């Protein structure tokens, strides 16, 4: 038998669980197999299929930075059969992981540029990986700005790192919550992401924008960026089409002639404009 | 590399015997209470006497409707994974039509374009195809519009064409040569038979290259929603289609053990693209029907440099509401941009 | 039969309906559902013995509802399905123009009560072939019947043509599509197929209008309509009800009456 079974996952032990917000958790996962732990490598932007044995597989991005070796992290919201089963797991439990799959954020191309990350709700995980990656390669880039918004204060994920980023001088963090979602001691902004971005008065020149969030947020934020002068080639986003295989076989993520699991999930707006809007 | 021979009816019987002695099972169209289905046979006499095509396609031989991908056992703090091995038996697929023989190429394109799918490959390695040219066709057939033909040898290891007293046998591949080598005496020197005169006449129905080049510009055309109005969004067309390759991965388990299964799926189902949030990128049947047409006639050519349709017409015959693909493609080809 | 096409033309041309749903000539000798939305699409309409499909499957679809008011060429099975859909509140009374075609005559029925009255005129009879097949099944002992269905259902590939063509299988979120819990396995193996058809049979018992479309739709020729029709006949025997005859829902399997037969409780 020459071919390997491409559907076979790695076994992973849950090393740490962080409750991020209601129904959102972060797992730190360690490879059980030593060889896999040593040889495993990925790039920021990539994703994997995580198994809850007994229930199935779910697609999440790898939310940790490739510069942090020895483990991977994922952050997920409990929405269905697999995510509910994962949410029931405890430290020490075994889950499965297949990956890394998909394309990557082109950090090399961003050298010498300003970076603006814009994330809404649970969409911070894909950006968290790249933000940490960029911070670990800090001298490659000029200004780094992060705009992160959620429905309410309790819905903000990664509160620990938000605090850390807000205290660092080499990254500018702007947090916002939807009107009505603030608490009395809330220090950030109140308002939806698109106007908040508009008010920041970002300079589009020599800057790339990386936008992740629910479809409606992306839809409303892109025009703002275009108004600010960002060309479509300088705007990056990730798609979340439903996936089953992650290998360019099952056809589920197919959008135009693109397999989101292979050619994506990272796309520039210029590339998206070439695809049918089936995402 | 086709080498042409004559194979008499008597010799075919002998060949079946040789194949069986070589340890291969022979699958062929058989008559099952009025329906023609693939079944295991030992002699040519068991093959359905008169058939156009089977209802289901032969893809099942390499890509079964349910396939175990892996299994596991669960204990506290412990999971043991077990790889799955496909049960790939040495098999000769006898009497499939040229369209279906060709269709394995479209499956192969997806299963192996990047990662290699061992389940499909293990079965394909064990499979040899003895195709049979068509001497008749029906209103659903359109092989000649998609680059094939009723006596096209593509995809067959040996292609048989019925002639007086037996068959013209074209040995097209190494696998075909290996079959001939089992009983070389049965294959007599062939004479110059005009295959085209024997084969069914299938009129070219539309200009496929022109259609393929105009599809990107007519994505928003209302023709798709119009055509899809009577489509009921079932899986019949995709499941009988010899090139449809989409699948689902499903888990079946109890608290102690489980397995992961791959099952046929279809882009025609509402569920196919539905997100857990309720958002659906292809919300209406018109969009799903369009995906079917585009995947086969636009995306496949773009990505794999081939079509995702062989014009067999199975989808048309299986559709409960008579969505005739050929007719719809003719209509689409006639849309002026 | 010409009369129904004539009337459909008038309705569309006068703008009383936005579309006419009837039959057209299809591949070979087949007939297919046909939506005529412009006058030019009307001449494709045909009406003859080969037109058998229950067109009521379309009237609950979002895409069809969006067209506006539709005139439906309605065979008795279609009429029954429409009435049942109205009784189950899936369809607003008066939202369709119903062109009833039975025995050559055309009658316009545009309300549930008109349908009810019309359907009461003639007894519902099962066609001879299905009747004979049901009798054959009935004559088998339990073991034979089990073996028969095991064998038939082993061919099922879960394409759901039978479900999707059924006018009474209108659920947006079918039990088969539900994965929390996963009531029925998705795979089309022995258990998955058996459970699917058992669930469908039970969901149609007392609701099946006996059109037989599920069986006709099956690409691999499994007579699944014998399951639903069989269950429907049983409900009729036990409770004296038939689906698609009453404008007001009186569903045997969800209603308790003190005089219900309890002979099946042992
Ligand atoms: C590239 C990518 C990155 C992503 N990153 C993240 C992330 O970082 N964090 C995050 O929270 N989410 C992420 N998502 C979204 C996430 O994959 C989904 O929210 C999640 O997979 C759905 O959860 P579930 O499996 O519990 O849901 P379910 O919908 O219950 O799915 C359970 C399983 O059953 C299947 N299924 C569902 N319904 C049916 C049915 N009716 N019949 C049969 N089978 C069914 C599903 O396909 C799935 O395999 C990402 C998605 C993509 C594509
Ligand atoms: S789409 Fe239809 S005609 Fe084309 S290969 Fe598939 S079943 Fe055959
Ligand atoms: S996308 Fe649709 S048409 Fe293409 S292979 Fe999949 S099921 Fe078939
Ligand atoms: S085209 Fe026919 S077979 Fe295919 S999904 Fe539509 S109704 Fe079903
Ligand atoms: S139509 Fe036939 S094959 Fe398809 S799900 Fe129904 S019984 Fe199974
Ligand atoms: S997830 Fe299967 S092809 Fe992309």
TrEMBL record, chain A:
Pfam families per UniProt: DHODB_Fe-S_bind, FAD_binding_6, NAD_binding_1
Keyword field contains Ribonucleoprotein: no
InterPro entries (UniProt xref): Cbr1-like_FAD-bd_dom, Cyt_c3_hydrogenase_gsu, Dihydroorotate_DH_Fe-S-bd, FAD-bd_FR_type, Flavoprot_Pyr_Nucl_cyt_Rdtase, FNR_nucleotide-bd, OxRdtase_FAD/NAD-bd, PyrK_electron_transfer
CDD domains: sulfite_reductase_like
UniProt GO BP: pyrimidine nucleotide biosynthetic process
Binding site for [2Fe-2S] cluster: 245, 250, 253, 261
GO molecular function, one term: metal ion binding
Cofactor mode of binding and number, as noted: Binds 1 [2Fe-2S] cluster per subunit.
UniProt keyword terms in alphabetical order: 2Fe-2S, Iron, Iron-sulfur, Metal-binding
Protein name: FAD/NAD(P)-binding protein
Organism whose genome encodes this protein: Candidatus Geothrix skivensis
Automatic annotation (TrEMBL), chain B:
Record bears the keyword ATP-binding: no
Keywords associated with the record: Iron, Iron-sulfur, Metal-binding
SUPFAM superfamilies named in the record: alpha-helical ferredoxin
Domain of life: Bacteria
Span of domain 4Fe-4S ferredoxin-type: 221-252, 300-328
GO molecular function, one term: iron-sulfur cluster binding
Keyword Transmembrane helix carried by entry: no
Family matches, as InterPro entries: 4Fe4S_Fe-S-bd, 4Fe4S_Fe_S_CS
PROSITE patterns: 4FE4S_FER_1, 4FE4S_FER_2
Name of the protein in its database record: 4Fe-4S dicluster domain-containing protein
Organism lineage string: Bacteria, Pseudomonadati, Acidobacteriota, Holophagae, Holophagales
From TrEMBL, chain C:
Domain 4Fe-4S ferredoxin-type: residue ranges: 199-229
UniProt keyword terms in alphabetical order: Iron, Iron-sulfur, Metal-binding
Record's keyword annotation contains Ribosomal protein: no
Highest taxon listed in the record's lineage: Bacteria
GO molecular function: iron-sulfur cluster binding; metal ion binding
InterPro entries: 4Fe4S_Fe-S-bd, 4Fe4S_Fe_S_CS
Listed SUPFAM superfamilies: alpha-helical ferredoxin
UniProt-listed PROSITE patterns: 4FE4S_FER_1, 4FE4S_FER_2
Name of the protein in question: 4Fe-4S dicluster domain-containing protein
Organism: Candidatus Geothrix skivensis
Lineage: Bacteria, Pseudomonadati, Acidobacteriota, Holophagae, Holophagales
């Amino acid at each position: 038998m020459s071919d390997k079974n491409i559907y076979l996952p790695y076994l992973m032990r849950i090393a740490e669980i962080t409750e991020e917000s209601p129904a959102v958790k972060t797992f730190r996962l360690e490879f059980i197999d030593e060889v896999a732990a040593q040889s495993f490598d990925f790039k920021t932007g990539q994703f994997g299929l995580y198994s809850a044995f007994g229930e199935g597989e779910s697609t999440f991005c790898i939310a940790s930075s490739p510069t942090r070796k020895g483990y991977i992290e994922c952050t997920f919201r409990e929405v269905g059969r697999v995510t509910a089963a994962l949410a029931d797991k405890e430290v020490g439990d075994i889950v499965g992981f297949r990956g890394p799959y998909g394309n990557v954020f082109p950090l090399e191309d961003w050298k010498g540029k300003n970076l603006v990350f814009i994330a809404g709700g649970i969409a911070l995980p894909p950006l968290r990986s790249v933000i940490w990656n960029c911070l670990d390669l800090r001298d490659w880039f000029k200004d780094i700005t992060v705009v992160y918004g959620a429905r309410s204060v309790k819905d903000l994920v990664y509160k620990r790192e938000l605090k850390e980023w807000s205290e660092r001088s080499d990254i500018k963090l702007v947090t916002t919550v939807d009107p009505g979602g603030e608490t009395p001691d809330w220090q950030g902004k109140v308002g939806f992401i698109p106007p908040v971005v508009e008010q920041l008065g970002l300079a589009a020149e020599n800057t790339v924008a990386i936008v992740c969030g629910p479809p409606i947020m992306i839809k409303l934020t892109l025009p703002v960026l275009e108004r600010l002068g960002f060309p479509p080639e300088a705007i990056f986003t990730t798609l979340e089409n439903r996936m089953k295989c992650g290998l360019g076989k099952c056809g589920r993520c197919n959008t135009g002639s693109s397999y989101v699991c292979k050619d994506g999930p990272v796309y520039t707006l210029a590339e998206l404009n070439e695809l049918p809007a089936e995402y | 590399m086709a080498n042409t021979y004559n194979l008499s009816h008597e010799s075919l019987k002998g060949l079946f015997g040789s194949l069986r002695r070589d340890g291969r099972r022979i699958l062929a169209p058989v008559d099952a209470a009025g329906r023609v289905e693939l079944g295991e046979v030992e002699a040519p006499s068991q093959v359905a006497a008169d058939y156009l095509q089977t209802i289901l396609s032969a893809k099942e031989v390499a890509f079964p409707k349910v396939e175990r991908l892996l299994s596991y056992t669960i204990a506290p703090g412990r999971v043991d994974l077990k790889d799955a091995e496909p049960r790939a038996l040495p098999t000769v697929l006898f009497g499939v039509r040229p369209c279906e023989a060709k269709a394995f190429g479209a499956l192969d394109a997806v299963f192996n374009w990047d990662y290699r799918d061992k389940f499909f490959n293990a079965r394909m390695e064990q499979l040899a195809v003895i195709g049979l040219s068509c001497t008749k066709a029906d209103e659903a057939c359109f092989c000649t519009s998609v680059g094939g033909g009723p006596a096209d040898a593509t995809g067959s290891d040996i292609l048989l064409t019925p002639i007086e007293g037996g068959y013209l046998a074209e040995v097209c591949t190494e696998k075909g040569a290996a079959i001939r080598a089992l009983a070389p005496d049965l294959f007599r020197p062939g004479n110059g038979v005009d295959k085209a005169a024997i084969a069914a006449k299938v009129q070219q129905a539309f200009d496929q290259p022109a259609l393929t080049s105009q599809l990107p510009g007519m994505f928003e055309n209302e023709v798709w929603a119009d055509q899809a109005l009577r489509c009921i969004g079932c899986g019949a067309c995709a499941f009988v289609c010899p090139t449809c390759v989409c699948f689902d991965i499903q888990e079946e388990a109890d608290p102690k053990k489980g397995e992961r299964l791959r099952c046929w799926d279809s882009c025609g189902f509402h569920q196919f693209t539905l997100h857990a949030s309720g958002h659906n990128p292809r919300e209406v049947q018109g969009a799903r029907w369009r995906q079917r047409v585009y995947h086969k006639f636009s995306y496949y050519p773009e990505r794999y440099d081939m079509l995702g349709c062989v014009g067999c017409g199975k989808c048309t015959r299986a559709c409960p509401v008579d969505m005739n693909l050929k007719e719809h493609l003719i209509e689409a080809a006639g849309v002026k941009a | 039969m010409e009369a129904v096409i004539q009337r459909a033309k008038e309705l569309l041309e006068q703008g009383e309906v936005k579309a006419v749903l009837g039959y057209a000539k299809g591949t070979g000798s087949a007939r297919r559902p046909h939506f005529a939305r412009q006058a030019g699409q009307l001449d494709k309409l045909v009406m003859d013995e080969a037109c058998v499909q229950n067109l009521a499957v379309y009237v609950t679809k979002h895409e069809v509802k969006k067209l506006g008011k539709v005139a439906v060429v309605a065979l008795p099975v279609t009429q029954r399905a429409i009435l049942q859909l109205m009784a189950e509140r899936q369809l607003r009374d008066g939202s369709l123009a119903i062109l009833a075609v039975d025995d050559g005559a055309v009658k316009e029925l545009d309300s549930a009560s008109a349908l009810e009255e019309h359907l009461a005129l003639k007894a519902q009879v099962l066609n001879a072939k299905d009747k004979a097949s049901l009798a054959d099944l009935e004559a088998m002992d339990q073991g034979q019947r089990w073996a028969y269905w095991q064998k038939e259902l082993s061919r099922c590939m879960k394409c759901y043509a039978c479900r999707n063509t059924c006018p009474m299988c209108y659920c947006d979120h079918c039990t088969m599509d539900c994965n929390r819990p996963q009531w029925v396995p998705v795979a089309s193996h022995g258990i998955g197929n058996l459970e699917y058809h058992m669930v469908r049979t039970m969901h149609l018992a007392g609701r099946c209008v006996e059109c037989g479309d599920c069986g006709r739709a099956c690409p691999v020729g499994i007579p699944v309509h014998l399951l639903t029709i069989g269950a429907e006949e049983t409900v009729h025997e036990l409770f004296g009800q038939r689906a698609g005859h009453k404008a007001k829902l009186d569903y045997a399997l969800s209603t308790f009456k003190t005089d219900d037969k309890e002979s099946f409780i042992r």
